[in-house]
Design goal:
alpha+beta, Nuclear Transport Factor 2, Chain: A, 37% helix, four-stranded antiparallel β-sheet, single chain, 2 domains
Length: 273
């Protein structure tokens, strides 16, 4: 059984490996974001001002930029890595649409790591920054969010086991359903069995739990990761269809129905003496 669980977990990770694909961003967007960070590090506020969305130009903006600039070491970064990208389009009431881009960078210095998130809107030839966040890290996100079993509490192992066993249970039940002789609607039962209901998610890095009651998940389990080095999220759902089928299987099997003896009754005719 432990080997089977390990194989199923490995299969889940292989199937979801596409979630950690490389990030494709235009050179224009990346150059703009890195130039903004360079200007902030150098406290070139006069050059930063025309790049800011008017909505973020508050009375506390200068203090916030001073604090952000103070987090940068004086040395140049050893490495700059783009680790996440979010892009969507916004359409105003007037019908004017603009593109919003959010880039997340990991800056590596000899003495520290910095996580930098910058968001900006693009409309025609105008690019304006409307969000910026910077926070120091004790290590690279690759190491912080690395999947490991070392040092985890028993609850993590229980959750990992359920993430492996739920799809295994669903697959076995689907095979049994396929081999079961049923009068009708077998394909509906197979659909019901193959999907889990609801979703419970675990952040493998910090142990946070998230519940999504209205969710349907194929094979009832999986994992996901935001960007290149985001925290790994394990998910599993309740295999409701598989459970109901197992409980009702004997009643659904046509062979059992046909083998059940039928009741026989005899009543004498009215004039029988």
């Amino acid at each position: 059984m432990p080997k089977t669980v390990a194989w199923v977990v490995g299969l889940l990770f292989v199937l979801a490996a596409c979630s950690a694909a490389s990030i494709n961003v235009s050179k224009e967007d990346r150059d703009f974001a890195e130039r903004f960070v360079t200007l902030l590090k150098a406290k070139e506020y006069d050059q930063i001002d025309p790049l800011l969305d008017p909505r973020v130009k508050t009375a506390t903006l200068r203090d916030a930029m001073d604090q952000a600039a103070g987090l940068f070491p004086s040395e140049p970064p050893l490495n700059i890595q783009l680790i996440n990208l979010n892009k969507f389009f916004v359409k105003s009431v007037s019908g004017v649409s603009k593109e919003h881009v959010s880039l997340e960078f990991q800056y590596h210095f000899s003495t520290t790591w910095l996580l930098i998130d910058i968001g900006f809107s693009k409309q025609n030839a105008s690019i304006l920054v409307d969000q910026f966040h910077i926070s120091p890290l004790p290590d690279s996100l690759e190491n912080i969010n690395r999947f490991t079993l070392a040092g985890k509490e028993p609850a993590f192992y229980v959750f990992l086991g359920l993430t492996a066993l739920v799809p295994l249970f669903i697959v076995i039940t689907a095979i049994i359903c396929t081999l079961t002789t049923m009068r009708r609607r077998k394909w509906l039962w197979l659909l019901f069995i193959l999907f889990g209901i609801g979703q419970l998610s675990l952040n493998w890095t910090n142990g946070s739990l998230y519940v999504t009651p209205t969710f349907v998940q194929l094979l009832g389990a999986g994992w996901s990761q935001s960007g290149l080095y985001g925290p790994i999220m394990l998910h599993f759902s309740v295999p409701l269809g598989a459970i109901i089928f197992v409980v009702l299987r004997r009643r659904l099997d046509r062979r059992n129905i046909e083998a059940t003896p039928r009741a026989v009754s005899f009543q004498p005719p009215p004039d029988w003496k």
